[in-house]
TrEMBL record:
Superkingdom, taxonomy of origin: Eukaryota
Catalytic activity: a 14alpha-methyl steroid + 3 reduced [NADPH--hemoprotein reductase] + 3 O2 = a Delta(14) steroid + formate + 3 oxidized [NADPH--hemoprotein reductase] + 4 H2O + 4 H(+)
E.C. code: 1.14.14.154
InterPro entries xref list: CYP450_sterol_14alpha_dmase, Cyt_P450, Cyt_P450_E_grp-IV, Cyt_P450_sf
CDD domains: CYP51-like (cd11042)
GO molecular function: heme binding; iron ion binding; methyltransferase activity; sterol 14-demethylase activity
Reported cofactor(s): heme
GO biological process, one term: sterol biosynthetic process
Record keywords: Heme, Iron, Lipid biosynthesis, Lipid metabolism, Membrane, Metal-binding, Methyltransferase, Monooxygenase, Oxidoreductase, Steroid biosynthesis, Steroid metabolism, Sterol biosynthesis, Sterol metabolism, Transferase, Transmembrane, Transmembrane helix
UniProt-recorded name of the protein: sterol 14alpha-demethylase
Source species of the chain: Salix udensis
Length: 403
C-alpha cells in the first residue's frame, strides 16, 4: 500500500514538472520576443549573486566588470535591477533628465531614518525643491562671507595648540577642525559652545548607521541602525530646545540654523522644529563629509608632491604681501593654485562614489563605440564619479595627481 502511495506522489510530481516545462516552452514559442536592446547582465548566483558582489564594494565590482561588459551593464539585486552608466558618452541623460523621468526620491529613501520624516527624500518633488531653496539661501555669497570670519577663528584657535614640529594624524585633525567649524556656522553658537561633545558623538552614531546594507534595508534591526535611531531622537530633542529658546528670547544668529528657523514655504507656512532638525542633519552630512574627505586627500597629496605644496605656499605668501594677515571670502577666492589642488583631489577621490536615480520611463544610450542599449522603466540607474573620473580615454594618465 505504501509503495502504491509513493508511486502516486512520484507520478504527480513528474506530471507537475512536465506541465511547467511544456508551459514554459509554449510561452517561449508564442510570446513575442522583446525588441529591446537590453544591457549585458553581470553573471552570478541566482537571486543573491549580484547582491553579494554589490555589498563587497561597488567600485571593486565596476573595476572587474567594466573591461568585460563595457560602459553600460546591469546587476540584479534580488528584486531590483541596477543599470550602470559609466562615462560621459552614456551618462548625460542621468544628469540632465527631469525628475519625472529619473527620480531621486525612491532610491534615496534609505536616508529617511537618518534625516528624519518630512524633509528632503521623504517629501514630494515640489516640497523638496522649496527645501533646497532654503539651503541655497543659507549658502548665498553674502552669507558665506559672514561665515568666513567664524571659520578663521576656529582654525586659528585649533592650530594654535600645535607646536612647531611633530607628527599628527591628518585625517583625524582635519575632520575635527571641520566639525568644529560646521558646528559654529551650521548648527549654531549653542551647540558649539555648550553641547559640542554630545552632538558630535550623536552625529558619529548617525554616520555609522549608514552602511552598504542600509541602502537596501534601511530599517533592518541591526545594532548600528538602533544606535542611529536613538541618536536621531536625541538630536531632535536638543534642537527643539535650542529653537524654542531662540524664539522665546527673540534672538537671531548668523548661522544656518537661524536661516532654517526663518525660512517659509511659498504658501507662507514656516518650517517646523522637526523640519529644521532634519535639514540641519542633511546639511551637516552634505558639508562635513565632503569637506573632510576632500581636505584629507588634498593634504595627503600636497605632502607627497612637494612641488605643488611649494606653489600653494608661494601663492599664499604673495597674497599676504598684498593683503596683510587678513583672510576673508574674497581673498580665499584668489587662491587659484590651492583651488586647482583641491579640485584634482576631488577628481581622484569624490566623496560620493555612486549616484542613483529611479527610471520612470524607457530611454536609450549610445556608447562611444556605437552600441545602443535600451534602459527599461523600473530600473535603478547608477553612475560612479569615483570610477568615471579615472577613465583613460577621458583623462590623460588618470591615476596621477596633476592639478
Amino acid at each position: 500500500m505504501t509503495g502504491d502511495t509513493d508511486n502516486k506522489f512520484l507520478n504527480v510530481g513528474v506530471l507537475i514538472i512536465a506541465t511547467l516545462l511544456v508551459a514554459k516552452l509554449i510561452s517561449t514559442l508564442i510570446m513575442p520576443r522583446s525588441q529591446k536592446r537590453l544591457p549585458p547582465v553581470i553573471k552570478g548566483w541566482p537571486l543573491i549573486g549580484g547582491l553579494i558582489r554589490f555589498l563587497k564594494g561597488p567600485i571593486v565590482m565596476l573595476r572587474e566588470e567594466y573591461p568585460k561588459l563595457g560602459s553600460v551593464f546591469t546587476v540584479n539585486l534580488v528584486n531590483r535591477k541596477i543599470t550602470f552608466l559609466i562615462g560621459p558618452e552614456v551618462s548625460a541623460h542621468f544628469f540632465k533628465a527631469p525628475e519625472v523621468d529619473l527620480s531621486q526620491q525612491e532610491v534615496y529613501q534609505f536616508n529617511v531614518p537618518t534625516f528624519g520624516p518630512g524633509v528632503v527624500f521623504d517629501v514630494d518633488y515640489s516640497i523638496r525643491q522649496e527645501q533646497f531653496r532654503f539651503f541655497t539661501e543659507a549658502l548665498r555669497v553674502n552669507k558665506l562671507k559672514g561665515y568666513v570670519d567664524q571659520m578663521v577663528v576656529e582654525a586659528e584657535d585649533y592650530f594654535s595648540k600645535w607646536g612647531d614640529s611633530g607628527v599628527v594624524d591628518i585625517k583625524y585633525e582635519l575632520e575635527h577642525v571641520i566639525i568644529l567649524t560646521a558646528s559654529r556656522c551650521l548648527l549654531g553658537r549653542e551647540v558649539r559652545d555648550k553641547l559640542f561633545d554630545d552632538v558630535s558623538a550623536l552625529f558619529h552614531d548617525l554616520d555609522n548607521g549608514m552602511l552598504p546594507i542600509s541602502v537596501l534595508f534601511p530599517y533592518l534591526p541591526i545594532p548600528a541602525h538602533r544606535r542611529r535611531d536613538r541618536a536621531r531622537k536625541k538630536l531632535a530633542d536638543i534642537f527643539a530646545s535650542i529653537i524654542n529658546s531662540r524664539k522665546c528670547a527673540s534672538e537671531s544668529e548668523n548661522d544656518m540654523l537661524q536661516c532654517f528657523i526663518d525660512s517659509k514655504y511659498k504658501d507662507g507656512r514656516p518650517t517646523t522644529e522637526s523640519e529644521v532638525t532634519g535639514l540641519l542633519i542633511a546639511a551637516l552630512f552634505a558639508g562635513q563629509h565632503t569637506s573632510s574627505i576632500t581636505s584629507t586627500w588634498t593634504g595627503a597629496y600636497l605632502l607627497r608632491h612637494n612641488e605643488y605644496l611649494s606653489a600653494v605656499l608661494e601663492e599664499q605668501k604673495n597674497l599676504m604681501k598684498k593683503h596683510g594677515n587678513k583672510v576673508d571670502h574674497d581673498i580665499l577666492s584668489e587662491m587659484d593654485v590651492l583651488y586647482r589642488c583641491i579640485k584634482e583631489a576631488l577628481r581622484l577621490h569624490p566623496p560620493l562614489i555612486m549616484l542613483l536615480r529611479s527610471s520612470h520611463s524607457d530611454f536609450s544610450v549610445t556608447t562611444r563605440d556605437g552600441k545602443e542599449y535600451d534602459i527599461p522603466k523600473g530600473h535603478i540607474v547608477a553612475t560612479s564619479p569615483a570610477f568615471a573620473n579615472r577613465l583613460p580615454h577621458v583623462f590623460k594618465d588618470p591615476d596621477s595627481y596633476d592639478p
